[in-house]
Amino acid sequence: MSVAQQPPPGQASQAWGAEDLARIRAAVKREPVLKIEDGQLRIYVEVIANWPSFTEFSRGFDYLHGPTGLDANPMSHQEFLNMVTPHDMYSSAGIKPAEIATMAAVNVAGQWAIAKAINKIGAYRKEKQMRDIQEKIDAALAAIKK
Fold first, then answer.
1. Residue 26 and residue 1 in contact, taking contact as beta carbons nearer than 8 Å
2. For the segment 69-104, what is each residue's pLDDT rounded down to a tens digit?
3. Does residue 117 sit in the same domain as residue 74?
4. 71 plus 24 within the same structural domain
5. What is the pLDDT of residues 10-19, one digit of tens each?
6. 3-class DSSP assignment, residue 99
7. What is the model's pTM?
8. Do 73 and 62 meet the contact criterion of CB atoms below 8 Å apart?
């Protein structure tokens, strides 16, 4: 690696090694491979490097006071949700849990009754069709006997 390719001291991240940066620079300088598939230009790049660990990634963070350096964090997720959620959504609009359970029970009973009625209607229709067919057969037999 020549002196011109060396980064100035302090600019290279500690998570990246000098050979990693050299490989990246060499890959960037190579002629890119372009492919046109289905009328779209596709560029494929492979970057090989060590994945930084959590400790390397979080170096310098103050977990007690946050990354801002202040004694108080700007806002927590719950504080944000409390701020943007309409106050009308905080209540159940006067409906008590016992009433909700009653509504659910009435709903289940109603669905059961409707399903039973639909089954009875279907059975009645079949029975009526069978009676109509039997009447036609009886009428035909009576006509034959005369």
1. no
2. 555 657 778 888 888 888 776 666 777 888 889 999
3. no
4. yes
5. 554 456 678 8
6. helix
7. 0.32
8. no
pLDDT band for position 1 (cuts 50, 70, 90): very low
pLDDT digits (tens, 9 = 90+) for 112-138: 999 999 999 999 999 999 999 999 999
Are 60 and 109 part of one and the same domain? no
Q: Give yes or no for a contact between 52 and 15, defined as CB atoms under 8 angstroms apart.
A: yes
8 A C-beta contact, residue 36 and residue 43: no
Are 16 and 53 in contact by the 8 Å Cβ rule? The answer is: no
52 burial type by CB count under 10 A (0-12 exposed, 13-18 middle, 19+ buried): middle
Closest Cα to residue 21, out of 31, 9, 32? 9
What is the extent of the structural domain holding 114?
93-146
Closest CA to 21 of 38, 37, 1, 36: 1
**Torsional class of 128: left (φ above 0), alpha (ψ -120 to 50), beta (otherwise):** alpha
Same domain for 83 and 42, yes or no, is yes
Q: Are residues 38 and 63 in the same domain?
A: yes
- Return d(Cα 35, Cα 41) in angstroms, integer: 6
